[in-house]
Amino acid sequence: MKEIVIVGGGLGGMSAAITLAKHKDFHITLIEKNPHLGGKLNVLEQDGFSFDLGPSIFTMPQYFDSLFEMHGKNREDYFKLVSVAPHWRNFFEDGKVIDLTDTLEGMKDLENISDKDYQELQDFYKYTEKLYDFTNDILFKNQAETILQTLKYYSPLKIFKDSDYIRTMDGGIRKYISNPYLIDIMNYFIKYVGSNPYDAPAVMNLLPYIQWKFGLWYVEGGMYQASIGMQKLISELNITVKTNTEVLTVKKQKGKIVSVTLSDGSMLNVDAVVSNMEAIPFYEKITKEPDQKLKILKKKYGPACSGFALHLGVDKTYPQLAHHNFFFSEDLKQNFENIFKKHKLSGDPTIYLVAPMKTDPSQGPEGHEIIKILPHISVMNGDQAFTKEEYDQFEEAILTKLERMGLTDLRKHIVSKELWTPEIIQQKYYSNKGSIYGVEANRKMNLGFKVPKTSTFYDNLFFVGGSTNPGGGMPMVVLSGQQVEKHVLRSLK
Ligand SMILES: Cc1cc2nc3c(=O)[nH]c(=O)nc-3n(C[C@H](O)[C@H](O)[C@H](O)COP(=O)(O)OP(=O)(O)OC[C@H]3O[C@@H](n4cnc5c(N)ncnc54)[C@H](O)[C@@H]3O)c2cc1C
């Protein structure tokens, strides 16, 4: 029997455990520091509300389906998905409201979308389809993890053309779209990977294509039900799960990890370690690499942004809201500069607001609404991202903006509140500086590639989750857990 330890039971770790459990000669131990599995896919029951503390947008269900199919099961028997329409409602400071409909064709019928806008959107969609085809080949199917590996599959000229190599995400959008509102909307798809559209490679424009092609979903009964469904599958497989247990350190021998030491005092001998803990924190905290050794890694694979996650229960409903809403900054570029370059809290942030009770009234008391507010903000710089006073001022700016933009008397109607800042996110999940999506997709730093799955320091150490390829967000981390299989198999042969 080969002993495989998985460090962390987030979606990446759970997916790796489920995938590796196909091999009857593997014994898998999944170790999670928190009481729950699912990692950032987490939930808080409070004052009669069920607050999803992590993801709210579910895309590409096929990567979840395959986890069940590989064991001869049907995902529908474990958790169900409900489609969400419109996909997003977008509010602008000048009073304009534009829906992002659940089909591209639906955009044609919107009164504030002209024939020219629709034609441009169609051309943009064709462009995003090409970017998806490229990424699907390179990253999802062939699993290239560097530009050198990409060259095994595509010629330099084809990479140049098919990935729109020379442009940023924003540059790619502006090539096709002239309506300034639609430019902001398309740029904000970068939310899904917590990066900056003015620095991210143009290939990130595959995101609108993915959403229109594969849909945007809600998990019946709350997002956390997806984790419950995966936990049920895990309980049916030969996987040992230890929650409330932290991996503290490892013993190394001749470029391999030979055992891991846990917070309950026990030690496990290992043939391979799969870390769902992000790569940089793993090297810093667990294998304790010297700073100098991590210099290049840190420069190339900086953290994606963090978030100011304010969960509110309110004793009022706001009929103008859809399930997913965005309240845009007047100056979107300035907002991203504040997050990624100036390390400042914006006076006028772009606010993502999710109101899940629009789809699922069971998540709170009747006549109430869950308003989860998530502007992206900078990660920690040292021990903290911002001070309590700065967070208080920021919260005021957000609530004032939302009231000004139509959520009348929001503050007066708050009956339940829970705030998660980068500091809390870091402590809870040990993410790099409180990042919520792993590694930033940055054209100059990494061309959108993340830390490779196979460690360059230890022969039997592998990574899954948001810090490795294909990247952050639920479907990608679940895919990383499936992709790691071939690397583990190769190393154990
Ligand atoms: C507020 C918020 C909103 C988001 N919104 C969306 C969204 O709408 N859609 C979307 O697709 N994605 C969203 N994301 C991102 C998404 O949640 C993540 O990309 C994904 O869940 C990360 O999964 P993971 O497995 O990589 O990491 P994690 O979920 O962080 O899992 C890592 C696990 O490892 C554990 N761990 C770490 N170190 C140790 C150790 N030493 N020993 C034992 N255990 C350890 C942690 O406790 C954690 O459980 C959001 C995230 C947040 C926080």
Defining key terms:
17 helices, 493 residues, binds flavin-adenine dinucleotide, FAD/NAD(P)-binding domain, 7-stranded mixed beta sheet
Task: Tell me about this structure.
- The protein has helices spanning about 10-20, 60-70, 105, 115-140, 145-150, 155-160, 170-175, 180-185, 205-215, 225-235, 280-285, 290-300, 330-340, 390-405, 420-430, 445, 475-490; strands spanning about 1-5, 25-30, 45, 50, 80-85, 90, 95-100, 215-220, 240, 245-255, 255-260, 265-270, 270-275, 305, 310-315, 325, 350-355, 370-375, 375, 415-420, 460-465.
- It has about 500 residues and is α/β, with parallel strands linked by helices.
- Among the domains are: about 1-40 and about 55-80 and about 220-300 and about 445-490, 3-Layer(bba) Sandwich (FAD/NAD(P)-binding domain), CATH 3.50.50.60; about 110-210, no CATH class.
- It has a 7-stranded mixed sheet with strand order 7-6-16-17-18-15-20. A 5-stranded parallel sheet has the order 9-2-1-13-21, covered by helices on one side. A 3-stranded antiparallel sheet has the order 10-11-12, with no helix packed on it.
- Flavin-adenine dinucleotide binds near residues 7, 39, 307 and 473.
Indicate the topology.
Layout: E1 2-7, H1 11-20, E2 26-31, E3 43-46, E4 49-52, H2 62-69, E5 81-83, E6 88-91, E7 97-100, H3 104-107, H4 115-141, H5 147-150, H6 156-162, H7 169-176, H8 180-187, H9 206-214, E8 217-219, H10 225-235, E9 239-242, E10 247-253, E11 256-262, E12 267-269, E13 272-275, H11 279-286, H12 291-300, E14 306-307, E15 309-314, E16 324-327, H13 332-342, E17 351-354, E18 369-373, E19 376-377, H14 388-404, E20 414-420, H15 422-429, H16 443-446, E21 461-463, H17 474-492
Parallel strand pairs: 1-2, 1-13, 2-9, 6-16, 13-21
Antiparallel strand pairs: 3-4, 5-8, 6-7, 10-11, 11-12, 14-19, 15-18, 15-20, 16-17, 17-18
The structure holds flavin-adenine dinucleotide (FAD).
